Fold this sequence. Notes:
The protein has helices spanning 17-26, 37-40, 53-62, 66-74, 84-89, 185-201; strands spanning 7-11, 30-34, 45-48, 79-82, 90-94, 106-111, 121-126, 136-141, 145-149, 154-159, 162-168, 171-174. With 203 residues, the protein is an alpha/beta fold.
Amino acid sequence: MSHEAPVIGVLALQGDVREHLVALAAADAVARPVRRPEELAEVDGLVLPGGESTTISKLAVLFGVMEPLRARVRDGMPVYGTCAGMILLADKILDPRSGQETVGGIDMIVRRNAFGRQNESFEAAVDVKGVAGDPVEGVFIRAPWVESVGAGAEVLAEHDGHIVAVRQGNALATSFHPELTGDHRMHALFVDMVRANGATESL
Length: 203
């Protein structure tokens, strides 16, 4: 690992934090859990994990990390949201729960639990733009999908006619959980985004 390994945080308020830390380390990043504003200030990029999006947003407000997080995302810090994290990065949620806030950053409208609670979870091969080789194995757990995107957002993948991966600038989001499969290519894509962002900042 070179000394230029980016430091990437995982928002550790709720959800599958450990799996993301492992996947990021496998993709040559220095991975750290982030719960507080001072920890957020020390990372080059951040992963918003799956979990319960309403709970995560309420805890983020409680821990005082929501506002600094919004500010960093606005300033261009690379951020990657999976499942509930995708919901947190949406500028708009269809039918949000009361008190549910988002970080924002991607011009998209997201539908929560879109793939249906009956179909609690399933796996599907997903072709993701920008990820070379075989399709990515997507694990969908009560997953959201993207109802629509604005002009600034690029669709990276669809499943069953629904958008399941989106990128806008330094923000990346997937409906599925790549951290549960042992395939670290989505994390590697994000690590590359963080590295590229660091290179531009140091020019």
